[in-house]
Amino acid sequence: MEQTTLKKQEGPVxxxxxxxxxxxAATCSITVNGKSYxxxxxxxxxxxxxxxxxxxxxxxxxxxxxxxxxxGVCVVEVKGAKSLLRSCVTKVTDGMDIHLASxxxxxxxxxxxxxxxxxxxxxxxxxxxNQNCELQSIASLLGIESIRFAQTRKRxxxxxxxxxxxxxxxxxxxxxxxxxxxxxxxxxVNVIDIMGRGSKSQVATFxxxxxxxxxxxxxGQCALVCPTAAIVEKDHTGEVWKALQDxxxxxxxxxxxxxxxxxxxxxxxxxxxxxTGKMVAALxxxxxxxxxxxxxxxxxxxxxxGHELIQRLTTGGKLPMITSCSPGWIKFIEHFYPxxxxxxxxxxxxxxxxxxxxxxxxxxxxxxxPRDMVVVSIMPCTAKKYEAKRPEMxxxxxxxxxxxxxxxxxxxxxxxxxxxxxxxxRMLKQASIKFDALEEEEFDxxxxxxxxxxxxxxxxxxxxxxxLRTAYEVVTKKHLPSVDFEAVRGLDGIKSAEVDLxxxxxxxxxxxxxxxxRVLLEQIEKGxxxxxxxxxxxxxxxxxxxxxxxIPTNTEIRKKRAESIYREDSxxxxxxxxxxxxxxxxxxxxxxEPLSHVSHxxxxxxxxxxxVY
Length: 613
Known about the structure:
Elements: E1 4-5, E2 13-17, E3 27-32, E4 35-40, H1 45-51, E5 75-78, E6 85-86, E7 96-99, H2 103-118, H3 134-141, E8 166-168, H4 178-186, E9 192-195, E10 202-205, H5 221-225, E11 231-233, H6 237-244, E12 250-255, H7 263-266, H8 276-286, E13 290-293, H9 294-315, E14 321-322, H10 327-336, H11 350-366, E15 373-379, H12 383-388, H13 395-403, E16 417-420, H14 421-430, H15 452-455, H16 462-476, E17 494-501, E18 504-512, H17 514-525, E19 533-537, H18 555-571, H19 581-591, H20 597-603
Parallel strand pairs: 3-7, 12-13, 12-15, 14-19, 15-16, 18-19
Antiparallel strand pairs: 1-2, 2-17, 3-4, 5-6, 5-7, 8-11, 9-10, 17-18
Helix pairs in contact: 9-11, 9-16, 11-13
């Protein structure tokens, strides 16, 4: 990747990102619905007319992800052409005379959508994507009131429920190819593809094994781009409602950084709305005993991970060290690059650290039997559902096992349920909570106190920046001139920077999406990596673009969410993890010091080598 040095404010970090270039583009003249326009050459009809203020319906097309002309919904009529043209793949040419809504175009669009609806289940009212389904919206847009075609599918296809995180319903699939494209082109995982031919075509996994039995990372990007409900998160709202209604249970909740910039959208507010206080108020109204913040253990993660990095640097440990906060990324390396597992930090993710601390330190402090505590996490990520059920994530049970003489039947996970942003939004609506009218409230102490460093975990580069804020001051014993490390911010796929630690130059890198992770892992396995520390996030943009976030999520929306993340960071009174007084108290009262015996028992883990199939 070609790179150029950034100009940035004074500080201990310099960085590189891919440069952008703007060149003058040639133009051509076209006519759209009888009006003349000049547009850039090389654009598709869809791109050109969209920039002119027209809207063409699409199903298989999705900017940045997929444009395979399979659905036929975007057809337009071009004078002189023998047939209707699919606007998502047809380039504009000089003199092109385009008609977007001629009788021929509208008839073709209706016919194509009716053919899709013929085999589609008629359970819209009970579907998770009801009122947020692109097929439903386009059918309404085209005025389709009845379907002229008979169903050709003789019997329903089986649901794929093998995954802890996702459910696939092939009966609702319209073969748009978006999920296949995002899995292969954006993530580079390739666990699903279109199998069969003709009327027997369907999206499936290798040998129809199911998502839970192949190298799926549970990232949920497929669910995020699916236009229908053919792939959705595995819903756990029923279990959480049941726990909230059980008087014997103490149900606490933690919220990931990215939720505060995504939940508002799901509740009808603008993109990237920062709703931290309203979110806390809403969770209290749902009935949670305490409303805590995953950002508390994001700060804790920095303490453990930062000291682990320093330990590796000073004792000749395995470098580069790679972050371990993103469960989709962890499963990816377990499947595809198991030889590099010892490069990954042994730290659990903030979600899992929270569960372990809540069911030990906090439970003991408050006199709660850990078996009676239910920990619910609100996450932007479907992979968190899988992570919560990993057998390694029972640190609190093992901590109490000897102390309370617990039996095998008493086993419990550190985190009981992980809900996505979308699931929480459904619960708030079911509870008749008028979200935008709520007064802002504060998190509960002590597990609700956090710093600006923890907030930015929600954006790509945030974990790296938070770690640098602490590592720099711990190593140099000097005050940072600026805590804003611009070099590791932004949506470039791979970013790098150099940190000066008392004369020692430390090279670091940041990557988001698993396809970009491959680039850095290939360097490591070839022995060519120049880095000491690497941050990898599974999803585009980091957690704020997670597979459990509101639909739609695109680059423009990710940028809005990132702006809000950094705005909250700038407003925090404390912006460095090691200065969080609640974290300092946790070490004083319970953990003693970073990387202590208790820390390793509760906050660190190991990984598993997995096969590709």
